[in-house]
Amino acid sequence: MGARILVVDDEGDLLEVLRRTLEAQGYRVRTATDGESALAAATACPPDLILLDLIMPGIGGFEVCRRLRADARLQHVPVVMLTALHETPAKVQGLDAGADDYVTKPFDVAELLARIRAQLQARGTDPWRVGDLLVSRSRHELACGDRTEPLTPRELALIELFARQPNEVLSRHAVLAAVWGEGSGAAGVVDVYVGRLRRKLQALRSAARIRTIRGGGFMLDVPRE
For the chain, which domains are there? Predict the structure, then answer.
């Protein structure tokens, strides 16, 4: 299955053109017409790449990018800004906000597709490995050897959080804020989802374990080779 791309632009005609173009290349596409809905869509199901317009009603592209980079679940998602602003200061501001690339309108479709491929390749292959585990964002799947376990969006976000910081202790509050968002409710939900992942790791017969650290939080214990 192709990479997931979130396209954000308030121009309906352009949005449709981009959707059809990307789907023709095998990508799975979601769209948003403003910054608020873009952040909601990205949080609900983190994409593999975001095409982001700058000038939009409500929350503008610069601020959207800054918020993406402040979210542990989304900070690694490549962002390609797509805008009519040609001036160098605007490009610098976009890159300073955390954008990975900058494409100005009108754009050449072949060039845009090449930039998208470059960003996806630069972020590594899918699935990616931590210890004896393979984490696949595109398939929502965790694998070890010839065994696989499906992952819900929350489980995927949780194992990604642990896997990006193996053998490091993450507090319960930090996990809750990163995967569910600040002010999202009782911390007990973390224990429920950690329990689900533990059962899946056991089913996979992985050497990796999620340990509970008394007074500290949780840690993905990955044996060092």
Answer: 4-122 (3.40.50.2300), 128-221 (1.10.10.10)
Q: Give tens-digit pLDDT for 7-39.
A: 999 888 989 999 999 988 888 899 999 999 999
Q: Report if pTM > 0.85.
A: no
Q: What are phi and psi of 187, to 5 degrees?
A: -70, -10
pLDDT in tens, 59-115: 888 899 889 888 877 877 889 988 776 566 666 766 777 788 888 888 888 888 888
